[in-house]
Design a protein that fits this description.
Blueprint lengths: L2 E2 L1 E5 L3 H13 L3 E5 L2 H10 L4 E5 L7 H10 L6 E6 L3 H9 L4 E5 L3 H14 L8 E2 L17 E4 L2 E4 L4 E3 L5 E2 L3 H11 L8 H9 L9 H13 L9 E4 L3 E4 L4 E2 L1
Parallel strand pairs: 2-3, 2-4, 4-5, 5-6
Antiparallel strand pairs: 1-7, 8-9, 8-14, 9-10, 10-11, 12-13
Helix pairs in contact: 6-8
Length: 253
């Protein structure tokens, strides 16, 4: 059953909130707004959202801290961070604390719309054009089951339909959409060296920018979640001068 994607815009500038709300509603989205983190968490507690547009510079608790809190609470809701002046440090730190993408102010609303659509696609919520299937619901295969749509490695299970990762103990490991797509790209090509550019193309396609360091940030986050010792990884290995290699044998389940 189709429904309209529900977005939450968090920015302390009323003009920006009103502008983005009108613009995104005109493109088929449901939109709520919040001026600060307190109101953001109130709305998240009361409603179901598909994505948060989160300003970095907020009064009180800033966007980085709010994003970090979301991830600490195991909330995998996609986040697009609004950063000031395009500072690279802000962008990298935003990705490190769990944001899925970022856009620098001032920005064209159409560019933000494109980023939102791309993140929704990567999160598996559909085409990201305003209406689609329920967020997070797996799509049925023609055969009516998910056989062959789970990747297994060293006891870990990566469900491609539900977009879930479970540890050997059966625990659900929270991944952002970017982390999930990167792990899939590596695991599906286990034993093959992939360059940073190849990984960017596989996970972000034409949305990748020159000198984009998001792959390095995502790899670091993935290692902290799946490696016994992230400093001496057993799964995602760095190949000097070549790129990255998924070292564990992978099978389709």
């Amino acid at each position: 059953m189709e429904r309209t994607f529900h977005l939450l815009v968090v920015d302390d500038d009323r003009e920006i909130r009103d502008l983005l709300s009108r613009f995104l509603k005109n493109h088929g989205y449901r939109v709520d707004t919040a001026a600060d983190g307190r109101r953001m968490f109130e709305l998240l507690a009361d409603g179901r959202y598909d994505l948060v547009v989160l300003d970095l510079m907020l009064p009180g608790e800033d966007g980085l801290s709010l994003c970090r809190r979301l991830r600490a609470q195991k909330i995998s809701l996609p986040v697009v961070m609004l950063t000031a002046l395009g500072e690279e440090t802000d962008r990298i730190v935003g990705l490190e604390v769990g944001a899925d993408d970022y856009i620098a102010k001032p920005f064209n609303p159409r560019e933000l719309l494109a980023r939102i659509r791309a993140v929704l696609r990567r999160a598996g919520t559909g085409a990201g054009t305003g209406a689609g299937t329920n967020a997070g619901e797996p799509q049925a295969t023609a055969a009516g089951n998910s056989r062959g749509n789970t990747l297994g490695f060293s006891g870990w299970r990566l469900d491609l339909l539900r977009r879930e990762l479970r540890s050997p103990d059966g625990l659900l490991v929270t991944l952002t959409s970017g982390e999930f797509d990167l792990l899939v790209a590596l695991a599906e090509r286990a034993g093959r060296v992939l360059s940073r550019d190849q990984l960017l193309d596989l996970t972000r396609g034409r949305e990748a920018l020159p000198c984009d360091r998001s792959i390095d940030v995502l790899l670091s986050r993935l290692r902290r979640k799946i490696e016994t010792d992230p400093k001496q990884p057993g799964f995602i290995k760095t190949v000097r001068g070549g790129g990255y290699l998924f070292a564990a044998p992978v099978e389709r389940l």
